[in-house]
Amino acid sequence: MSNRRPRWPVAVAAATGCFLLAACSSKSTTKPPAPAASAAATQAAAATASDGSGASAPTASSNLHACVLVSEQDATTALGADPGVGQEDTQNGDFGGNSRCIYAITSAGVQVSASSIAGKALCDGNRRSNSVDVPGVGDRAFETPATGDQEATVYFLKGDICVSITIETTAAMGSAKDRVIALATTAAGRL
After folding, report:
1. Residue ranges per structural domain of the chain
2. For a surface tag, which of 2, 43, 63, 164 has the fewest beta carbons within 10 Å of its beta carbon?
3. 141 near 99, Cβ under 8 Å?
4. Reading across the β-sheet that carries 29-30, which strands appear in turn?
5. Whole-structure pTM value
């Protein structure tokens, strides 16, 4: 009989360590929970539990989901056609999160981005000298200059979360500015 120890315990320990390291990673890519209403309700419940009023924004460690802030139904109303489920890319970690959701139809689309990592600095950094304030959206909001009549972008800050919403439309759809402000108002109400 040999005095040699089996190597599998070392392999199992190494594999377990790698698994735990991966599980503790600060980044994770997730898809929005289904249905979106339940995620919004979860965020609202968390806000209500924090101060009893439901008026506060999620904390920096809360999971952000841009497709919850602007739902498929909201995008359908803004675009005049159902774009289907939004394509979301989300990273949430110990220090906050970033999320982007894109809804697209053949000739138009909506992009929603949200960040709880240095949100105030992010919103401030996107403000231009010719930006126009948008009252009544979040804690403060502004529209950035568009590259054309059929595009509009609104940035708003609510708590420590910066959200930007961009819409591109066709001339037949009417004012992109009115549509993006309506989306921003809806999104701010969900934070």
Report:
1. 29-190
2. 2
3. no
4. 29-30, 87-93, 96-105, 108-115, 161-168, 151-158, 140-144, 132-133
5. 0.68
Phi-psi group of 21: left, alpha or beta (phi > 0 → left; psi -120 to 50 → alpha; rest → beta) = alpha
Spell out the residues 6+ positions from residue 44 whose beta carbon is closer than 8 angstroms to its own.
54, 190
Which residues are CB-contacts of 154 (< 8 A; sequence separation ≥ 6)? Answer: 134, 137, 141, 142, 143, 144, 164, 165, 180, 181, 183, 184
Whole-number Å distance between alpha carbons of 100 and 7: 45
CB atoms within 10 A of CB 158: 24
**pLDDT, tens digit (0-9, with 9 covering 90-100), for 80-131:** 999 999 999 999 888 889 999 999 999 899 999 999 999 999 999 999 999 9
Rounded Cα distance between 176 and 110, Å, is: 10
How many residues are listed for the chain in this entry? 191
Alpha-carbon Rg for the chain, nearest whole angstrom, is 21
Quick one: which H or E segment has residue 100?
strand 96-105
Task: Return d(Cα 18, Cα 185) in angstroms, integer.
Answer: 44
Strand partners, 90: 30, 99
Give yes or no for a contact between 156 and 114, defined as CB atoms under 8 angstroms apart.
Answer: no
Rounded-to-integer distance, Cα 64 and Cα 110, Å: 17
The reported pLDDT for the residue numbered 62 is 59
